[in-house]
Amino acid sequence: MTKQSLGVCYYPEHWPEERWETDAGMMREAGITFVRIGEFAWSRLEPNPGEYDFGWLERAIDTLHEKGLKVVLGTPTATPPKWLVDRMPDMVALDADGRPRGFGSRRHYCFSHVAYALECDRIVTELATRFGKHPGITAWQTDNEYGCHDTVVSYSTAARDAFRIWLKEKYQTISRLNDAWGNVFWSMEYRDFSEIELPNLTVTEANPAHRLDFRRFSSDQVIRFNRRQVEIIREFSPGRDILHNFMGSVTDFDHYRLSQDLDAASWDSYPLGFLERDGDDEAHKLKYMRVGDPDMQAFHHDLYRACGRGRWWVMEQQPGPVNWAPWNPAPLAGAQRLWAYEAFAAGAEVVSYFRWRQAPFAQEQYHEALLLPDGSPNAAYETCRTVSAELAKFDASVGNARADVALVFDYESDWAWQIQPQGADFSYLKLVLAFYRALRKAGLTIDVVPPTADAVRDRKLIILPGLMCPNRKFIDELANTQAMVLAGPRTGAKTQDFRIPADLPPGGFREVIDFDVWRVESLRPGAQVRLKYREAGLFLERWREFLRPGEDATAIIESEDGHPALLASDKRAYLAGWPNEDLLDETVAYCLAQAGIERLVLPDGIRIRDHGPHRFIFNHLEDEQGISAFIGDGEILLGGETIPGAGVAVVERRGR
Ligand code: GAL
């Protein structure tokens, strides 16, 4: 169990050196412990090829260290400088239309470019040898937000060449690849790996099996790129944690696998930015505009806790309005505090605000910070003071208790359903989030997990929406578990080679619950498959499957036109479509009853997280709410029986 700390992202290179000591003093005063620096500073670290200027960085690290702050040093590889791009113009990624992703912002590199990777080895080695053993450096961050701005997939020559090698390793012979991809369709057969192009610029859609392998390859390239940096840092900077800051809603590479090389995962949490950018319900956006969606952050916290195998941070936390969403409202007073507690409640070791001081120049001028552009404190600075003072009074550490409920999230399924959505609005991430939300509305604490047997062992309820192709070990675990298992639409819908299973979906998954899917349909917005049920208002939308139940399975809910909508067999259930909110709530209620888990019905905007001795209660609405029903006979450590908009309560649960 680690005591929670606050952090901040700092850019000393943006401010006069005379100011650094004042900044460091103010950070201490606000209760900040960790300071991340350096991740975009390549042009200042190496202004000309091979000419290093590390003196300023050393002085910045010294200044922070002397004030007792712990430094997280970023590698600057997300921002290769102009001279480097000019030297090797083909190092930039190409988009699907073959256009270069030009210089002048960031992340303008291709993960497959061999010479760029060597340049990264060089700058990382220089930094790690110079600063690796500095007593002020306690951790490293590799690069910055792999995949942000849609930068995982590149259609460059370097990517094509590396893809051919990757395919050869995977399939060994070209006939195996042709068979696996079904290339006989439309005469797409190849005679040699050297004939294979990338799946872009085709007349109509490229073969989905080709595309899925390209997505797998692209994910592997990110993992390899990161691993090179990790290996160098480990060699020259022993004993320091290595992290990467993942970005919310970025799913283009496998974060579980990349995190295997890290000591802890971290992610960048922008609750209001995400709601404005990613939400699709206008009323919902208005309702949560100043505190953020009640489940979006929590979902990512749970995901990155899984990635980091229990160790994770929020590397960047929204401090005020951001600059990059379609609209950028200010948080309700207290929202920044709520976000910190949400993360700590989920086990975060550090919550680090982005950024220290608002930059009056370049791209992020309207992005607030802990300080105003003039260097005086802004609202989030006060938040840090408040939270650090509160944390000093009680220990909210939650450790790593295993939740009774596991919700499976799988990156490959996300790529598969992006490649073949079949209905324009089928989004795997949104499907998983819908299940997550329904579970949270019932007051549950959830672990988000990868689709592995270990991850779902010893649970009471296991939920897997849309898992493309469960592997054998996972199926065996699910077939034998005592837990309640709920699978959602498209589970087992394809093989690893992106084919419909020879014995029809759900393929091997029918060992868990027995049925065939003989037809699927996707539905335009507004279309509803109405259900026969004691209550009105339940329906399937977007996606529907027509099932033929096996002997032991029975439909507990049927559609009005006579097809199973919720199929069950003992402690197994399958939802044959995309459930509307009421149907999902009803399904969750059924599963909780089967699993013997208590179900709460939380008021709008209230969320709970139970961990060890503590219950955390959050109010995501702007108005105050009474929460005494959820306190029981526990002792209130923070907050009260009524909490204001964006309020937080922490309760010590008796007998725990
Ligand atoms: C993050 C990024 C930061 C900054 C921030 C603004 O995605 O890592 O460098 O741009 O967004 O909100």
Give structural notes:
The protein is 32% helix and 19% strand. It is an alpha/beta fold. It folds into three domains: 299 residues, Alpha-Beta Barrel (TIM Barrel), CATH 3.20.20; 191 residues, Rossmann fold; 47 residues, Golgi alpha-mannosidase II (Immunoglobulin-like), CATH 2.60.40. Strands 10, 11, 12, 13, 14, 15, 16, 17, 18, 19 and 20 form an eleven-stranded mixed β-sheet that branches. The chain has a nine-stranded parallel β-sheet with strand order 5-4-3-2-1-9-8-7-6, with helices on one face. It has a four-stranded antiparallel β-sheet with strand order 21-22-26-24, covered by helices on one side. Helix 1 links the parallel strand 1 and strand 2. Helix 16 crosses helix 19. It is globular and about 75 Å long. The mean pLDDT is 97. It binds beta-D-galactopyranose.
